[in-house]
């Protein structure tokens, strides 16, 4: 995934132990990873609809200039046609679960960009044409950690 993805460096001892135990005891962790991927997809969609970062803070509002340029969804942040939200994906292997988007603009929306950060058009217009504030959309909220642990536990216990 070239766009934006999350890498969870779980600090909680219980989560690390559960994940380590899963990898030691379960021959194929992919079913657990797929279930976590589905959970992350739903959690991100819910948060996207609420227009909030994983820590619960609201996204920076749209500028008046952006609202004026948008032909539809003028009141929705990070939504023109809904493609970015609808293109969240996960990929699993025996070693990892990747979650995010392959769209480069997903990273721009997450981290932000200054006017002209990507050069200019042949007519000299800066790309982007204005500053894009960071609107963190990718990540795991504190209250989303427990369900992930429960998924790992269920797979550890064979349920």
What key attributes describe this structure?
6 helices, 159 residues, Phage_virion_morphogenesis, single chain, mainly alpha, Phage virion morphogenesis protein, elongated
Element string (H = helix, E = strand): EHHHHEEHH
The secondary-structure class comes to mainly alpha
How would you classify the quaternary structure? single chain
| Count of discrete alpha- or pi-helical segments spanning 4 or more residues | 6
The largest beta-sheet arranges its strands as: 1-3-2
> In angstroms, what separates the terminal alpha carbons?
31 Å
Helix % is: 40-55%
Mean pLDDT score: 82
Shape: elongated
The counted number of beta strands is 3
Pfam families: Phage_tail_S (PF05069)
Organism: Halomonas stenophila
Protein name: Phage virion morphogenesis protein
InterPro entries: Phage_virion_morphogenesis
Write the layout of secondary structure elements.
Layout: E1 4-6, H1 13-25, H2 30-50, H3 64-69, H4 83-86, E2 89-92, E3 97-101, H5 104-111, H6 142-156
Antiparallel strand pairs: 1-3, 2-3
Helix pairs in contact: 1-6, 2-6
Give the gist of this structure.
This protein is mostly helical and 159 residues long. Helices cover 42% and strands 8% of the residues. The protein has a 3-stranded antiparallel beta sheet with strand order 1-3-2.
Structure in words:
This protein has helices at 13-25, 30-50, 64-69, 83-86, 104-111, 142-156; strands at residues 4-6, 89-92, 97-101. It is mainly α. The protein has one domain. Helix 1 (13-25) runs parallel beside helix 6 and helix 2 packs antiparallel against helix 6 (142-156).
